[in-house]
Amino acid sequence: MISAKGICKSFADKEVLSGIDLDIKPGKIFGLLGPSGAGKTTLIRIITGQLGFDSGEVRVFAKPVNELTGDDKKKIGIMMDDHGVYDRLSCTDNLKIFADIYGVPYSEIGKALKETGLADSAKKPAMKLSKGMRARLQLARVFMVRPKILFLDEPTSGLDPMTMKYIHKLILDRRDSGCTVFLTTHNMEEAAVLCDEVALLNEGKIVDRGAPSEICRRYNHQKTINIHLKTGEDISLAHGAESAEKISSLIEQGKVETIHSSEPTLETVFIELTGRKLEAEEEIRYA
Amino acid sequence: MRNVLVIIKKQLKDTLKNKTVLIQFIMFPLMTLVMENAISLPDMPELFFTKLFSVMYMGMAPLTSAAAIISEEKEKNTLRVLMMANVKPWEYLLGVGTYVWILCMAGAGIMATGLPAADIPFYLGVMAAGFVISIALGACIGIFSSNQMTATSLFVPVMLVFSFSPMLAMFNDKIEKVARIFYTQQLRVLMNQMSFEGIKPESIMILSVNAVLAIALFFVAFKRKGLE
Fold first, then answer.
1. How many CB pairs below 8 Å do chains A and B form together?
2. A85 touches chain B (CB under 8 A)
3. Is A82 an 8 Å CB contact of chain B?
4. Which residues in chain B touch residue A100, judged by CB atoms under 8 angstroms apart?
5. B84–A85: do the CB atoms touch at under 8 Å?
6. Contact call for residues A160 and A132 (beta carbons, < 8 A)
7. CA angle, A180 as apex, A179 and A183 as ends, to 5°?
């Protein structure tokens, strides 16, 4: 559905992307993870044809991106972090503009608003919507045209957990209906929940890729089982037959408060690979 | 062409809720009606306020509204969304330009109500030409500006020069000598004569140069900045 080979992009002397390879299969959610400034938005803009690149090849719908026709582009939905809505117009009127452009019947507007939970705010001007509702209005705008590929740039950035969860459900529903989703995020929990495959992007290079669970397993060097006892004591046991008896005995004696395996998260994998935190910049921004 | 109509439709809806742009289209036609009917002084030239405000309207409303609309769309990133939806830059600019021109012509139609019926086609022709040049200049400013604040700081001096110089030229010969190179002053001269027969080659030449410069500037701005 989407493929890229050796994409390189520089702004002035600074190389932003260096030899990016991608192969995204239809009907999957692909997550591009990286801290702010890693090159995620630049890569989305290149793949969607908004930005040129220095070398490499990008193909969407098996065509070079610069050869996509108007009809091809109508099968692509894009929600960028910085995209705006028409503040003075109502939610319905905002969607009507794009229904007219894409030739979508107006009956789809009501469906898209209902799907995104904005049916009650259909007549409300966009300027009176909360941040989460504006994000949902943007999603309604891209959902309305029933795209085959959906590009979502930080779709839940700065949203409250409830809205975030709601948007996750919408994205998963879209994937289940056969849409291919390309999303960027620096939220590793979001990536773990949503993505079938992720690529970790750092300073313009993909440092690892795979299914989130597979990546976590691959970097599970410690392979220990951590037990927190009711007495407050923490013990770590190695994976293996010799530990099984001890764990079983602790459980039988009712001494165990919590028990966890030591598999790393995407966050810890990222730190191990790059020495950087995924959300470091974001934390500073909201501090 | 469908996208051009979509842009016009969008602007019509948006303008009804955008008081700062709406007032540009209403203020001068309204002032003309009020002043022509309320003030009558001895020795005052016939249709003094209609002609005075028409030139000001021509130099002000299309220029400021075109610049304000384009710069607002750039600032709020809605223009990028339109481009992503495969609206071509020329479709967008033609849509905005046509919309501004239509509303300005509607305003000119109101201002023309005090004119003798025989003069109305000439008057509207003059206004139509002036609006086109002003829209091109406003679009240049909109394209050059990344936000509304920059657009305002650019269009205010330009608008003041073009819309007020014909009025000042009535009272000062030196200003008149400078102002005659502006399209607004030439169109004011044409409006005073109010006949196709009275058009001088000099006026046609100055108007043509102004139009060519405005359109050339528009293309230079678009080539350098695009709609990003």
1. 52
2. yes
3. yes
4. 2, 6, 9
5. no
6. yes
7. 125
pLDDT digits (tens, 9 = 90+) for A217-263: 887 776 788 888 988 888 888 877 778 888 888 888 888 898 887 77
Other beta carbons within 10 Å of A201:
26
Question: Which chain B residues are closer than 8 Å to A70 by Cβ?
Answer: 86
In order along chain B (228 residues), what is the average pLDDT of each group of 10 residues? 92 88 90 89 84 91 93 90 87 94 94 90 92 94 91 91 89 88 90 82 90 90 79
Taking the Cβ of residue A105 and every Cβ of chain B, the question of whether any pair is shorter than 8 Å is answered with no
The residue type at B156: V
Interface pTM, i.e. ipTM:
0.84
Q: Which of B3, B10, B20 to mutate to test the interface with A (most CBs of A within 10 A)?
A: B10
Quick check: A87 and B76 CB within 8 A? Answer: yes
Which chain B residues are Cβ-neighbours of A89 within 8 angstroms?
Answer: 10, 13-14, 17
Residue A194's closest CA among A152, A162, A158, A159? Answer: A152
Rounded Cα distance, B111 and B147, in Å: 32
Q: CB neighbours of A164 closer than 8 A, spacing ≥ 6? A: A156, A190
Contact flag A84-B77 (C-beta cutoff 8 Å): yes
Is the separation of the CB atoms in B139 and B125 below 8 Å? no
Distance of CA A45 to the CA centre of its chain: 15
Calculate Rg over the CA atoms of chain B: 18
How much is the pTM?
0.81
Kindly report, residue by residue over A152-205, the tens digit of the pLDDT: 988 888 788 888 888 899 899 989 999 999 999 888 888 888 999 999 888 888
